[in-house]
Amino acid sequence: RKLVGRRFGSLVKAWKAIDTTGLVALNKAEFCKAVASTGYAGNSSSLWDSMLEGSEENLITMRELDPKQFRQFAAFRRACKRSLGSFEKAFDDGSGETMMRHSEQDFLKLCEKVKAPKPWPQLFQQLDVKSSSSIGWDEVSFLETQWEWQGLKEKAKRSAAPKLQEHTGRLMGSPPRTTGM
After folding, report:
1. What is the model's pTM?
2. Distance of alpha carbon 49 from the chain centroid
């Protein structure tokens, strides 16, 4: 978990590096392969075991990667929903579209308005996935699209595994390999 902070700077960035196919929840084989591809030099199987220690889960999500940080994401989402009626409204530009981006100062004001739990600067840093010094719906929408919420409980929505193109071994929609590089 400390490596995540040092290497990627945020939980969301780390999870995007691990879950490159957008499955949301990974089984042990998917996780071990993905972690190894990020350059992790340790035993990815032992890492899996330590993250799910005492759990009967057979899938891992960003929640297991950093439970404390994920709880802060969930608390921020709940605070927006409770105060504004929906999470999306925190990023509504007034036209009904989720186009608004919040600078760090605006984000801290939003957190204060909705009474989100602190530390707000850390939350901003974690959600500023593009390192653009602003946060938009595109960076936080995963909390709505990839998770089901029932009260204080959340459940990952596991996506179907991406399909390989017949006989090519390529992911659907990926460009053909160029020759002579």
Report:
1. 0.81
2. 21
